[in-house]
């Protein structure tokens, strides 16, 4: 029995020697330490729109591709959940925190905590405001669209399309989430242009929280109250495509033709909007790209390599009227 053990041990020793010799031949005996993965904590707003789903997919795919460990948290459109997620990322000592803030305000305390913990923060998609101090002192970069410009583009497209300089144009507006940067900025951009066209009047404006269901519900109430007031709705400006798509259903159910009886312009440029344009039910969409994943991972890598980032990284975007929809749809990525 002991003889058997001695032979076994000798064989094991020989195998180890062969293994070590093999290692020596390939990398001169140096064992390379496995590189530590960068850990990114990302707090997403939710899954309220086609845009948001594409944004989430873009971030998850880009993290995988970049070899970055992603701790992803979905806040279901609640700020309290985003605050919890960010605090848990701080506790877990992630390398970088990124988030899309559901609303602009209420981030002071949590960002101070991240700063005190020495964890850099990246803002994606939406901006913030601080009640105390300069927000730029609390994030390293903010990447995303210019929402004010998107509102201006929607208004300029409309004025150009309507060619209506004298007669009144009655507009109803479906706003995004109350207190969110895109709702505030798109409204401001749109109104800025409309100041120069006083015959364009926003007769009703209410939030549809960026969802199809709410967009439909609010449009139904717009149609009802306009009827009761004896007003004609000429135009719908929706802060995103999902609300416009919900509103299209409400308009059809009211026996009207969306895209003809009511001209519709919305923002995002999701595939659903292109399909609605091809069906003649939506007149234009203003692009707002959710494909921020690649840029985000690049920024995370640069940051951890000690590089300086630009404070603002802007997304390039276009305007798509219905007559280009069929040509553009096959190449749309979201
Ligand atoms: O912040 C971007 C906006 O959020 C998109 O326009 C909208 O669809 C989304 O929910």
What would CATH call the class of the largest domain? Alpha Beta
The assigned CATH architecture of the largest domain is 3-Layer(aba) Sandwich
Question: How much is the average pLDDT?
Answer: 92
The chain-level structural class is alpha/beta
The hetero compounds bound to this protein are: alpha-L-arabinofuranose
Number of domains: 2
- Provide the CATH topology of the largest domain: Rossmann fold
Strand % is 15-25%
Question: How would a crystallographer describe the biggest sheet?
Answer: 6 strands, parallel
**Side-by-side strand order of the widest sheet:** 2-1-3-4-5-11
Describe the protein's topology.
Elements lengths: L1 H26 L11 E6 L5 H17 L2 E6 L4 H13 L4 E4 L8 H9 L4 E4 L16 E4 L2 H16 L6 E7 L5 H14 L5 E8 L4 H18 L5 E4 L2 H13 L9 E6 L2 H8 L5 E4 L5 H12 L7 E3 L4 E3 L3 H4 L6
Parallel strand pairs: 1-2, 1-3, 3-4, 4-5, 5-11, 6-7, 6-8, 8-9, 9-10
Antiparallel strand pairs: 10-12
